[in-house]
Amino acid sequence: MAKPKLCLIPSAQGDKFYSVLPSSGVGDFDFSRSGGATRINSQGLIETVADGVSRLNYPLIDGVVKGCPYHILEPQSTNAINYSEDFTQTTWSKVNLSVTSNNSISPDGSLNASLITSTANGSYLSDSLTSYDPSTFSLFVKYVDHQFIQLYSGASGNFYATFDIKNSVVGANGAATDNVKIDNYGNGWFRISCVFSGVAAGSTARIGFAQSLNSTWGGLNTSFGTSFLSFGSQFESNSYLTSYIKTTSAAVTRSAETANGSGDAATFNDSEGVLFAEVSKDKGTQYSLISLQKSSVSDTYAYIGYLNNNTTIRGQIKVGGTIVLDEEIEMSDTSIVAKILIKYKSGDYSMWVNGFEVGSNTNSTIFSDGDLNEIELGINNNNGLRFYGKTKQLQYYDTALNSEDLEKLTSWVSFSDMAEGQLYSVE
Amino acid sequence: MANEIYDSTWWGNTIDTASSIGTSTEMIQGQFNMDDRQEVEAVKCLADAIHRIGIQNIQN
After folding, report:
1. Cα A167 from chain centre
2. pLDDT digit string, tens, across residues A123-163
């Protein structure tokens, strides 16, 4: 197989996504984000990344870092909760419970987790905030001797989700609540989360001592004296869970991230080539595209794209306004990493996903010299089509590889390689 | 020798990778140049990926 002309292997952080090929650095992506953000570092701990610095995020499988990092790109999101880690503050109403600060090591590796103990029946924390539609509510928790936790809005019985934090099980949830998740962060810590949608979820975010896994809205403890550990609460203006945003005395907004400007006209062959990416899309109703394109022109591109659902991958190539390849495949879940490529050559266009050819086209139209001059994690600098998700690798080949090579490129070498690549645990 | 320092140093990884990718000096140069632009954090991951790409390049 030919060697890639451009190759991004996520392995460094900075003001770019650094490409190992071309060796000149012309394949680096310009990265932007105003303000800081957090990531999971190589020790599996939450770590703050400085203003404008790209993020390498390490995969956690069953709470343990496993495998190589990927770049993450996320949209703007605001954590509306004040004092996201300090539940002693007066912004948190403490109903029938006590808070002991700095009681245990939190998921950021510091002694700053709070012990929350019920002191009477019906125990909950409540924070007044500006609500959104949709919104995603999340919290890091660790079991001590209270097993069931409920995240809910004070406004309506439609907004709640109940969790078993001892056994990592999701329980009852409200009619306007979905994407209920419990993610293992290791050392007994879980990040529990749910999405509220339909209407703005009221003006209070509540964390309750649920009575059981089947507890519905506000179904709180009927005995007391039990505890759990808590850290990092987040009520964000987004339709899916994103990385943790720390707050103190006010809401904090993490700005949207962009990555573009990889390569130039000399990098790309306008007659034939292959764009390959190992990526996944964040859950949500946004489109997410990765394009090899003619900058600042909307009618000449080749993109690997995710539609505004959580199931469809599309490959499309347009040359001077003429669509020469337009293929889609339905996946079970596009937040699972996939290996996707599109090939272009006069009379020989195709799209491959996870080792299979999805479709092809024999259209003879092809790009003109100098057309292709950039890879963007997005397309044409369009805010609504930016890629938001995980990038495990990205390669560009300046020759149209044969089918055997395309199959090899989009396949995993073993079952364990595939499982690890798609962040599954194998038991 | 390379294996002894593989996993622990940037040079070790690059030396180990070099043996697998033959005459593809651009890939070796790419590693060094990338490290010049920005310190590489996931050294072994980068070296392993280049090793894998180098092997597939040689095999065909």
Report:
1. 24
2. 999 999 888 889 999 999 999 999 999 999 988 899 999 99
Whole-prediction pTM value? 0.93
Task: Quote the tokens at residue A247.
Answer: 């707050």
Interchain contact, B42 vs A28, CB within 8 Å:
no
Q: Which residues of B touch A10 (CB under 8 A)?
A: 42, 45
User: Whats the size of chain B, residue-wise?
Assistant: 60
Given A195, A230, A254, which residue is the final one in a domain? A254
pLDDT digits (tens, 9 = 90+) for A404-426: 999 999 998 777 777 777 766 65
Q: Compute the nearest-CA separation of B51 from chain A (Å).
A: 12
State the nearest Cα–Cα gap between A397 and chain B, in angstroms. 12
Closest CB to B57: pick one of A1, A16, A25: A1
Q: Is residue A426 part of a domain?
A: no
The number of distinct structural domains making up chain A is: 2
**Shortest Cα distance from B43 to chain A (angstroms)?**
7
Q: Is the confidence metric ipTM above 0.85 for this complex?
A: yes
The answer to whether the Cβ–Cβ distance between A23 and B29 falls below 8 Å is yes
Residue at A427 is within a domain? no
**Within chain B, how many helices (H) and strands (E) appear?**
4, 0
**Inter-chain residue contact B30 with A20, CB threshold 8 Å:** yes
Do A161 and A294 lie in one domain? The reply is no
* CATH code at position A364: 2.60.120.200
Distances (CA, A) of A195 to A21, A31, A88, A217, A296: 40, 29, 26, 15, 36
Contact yes or no for B45 and A20 at CB 8 A: no
The range of the structural domain enclosing residue A342 comes to 6-74+257-421
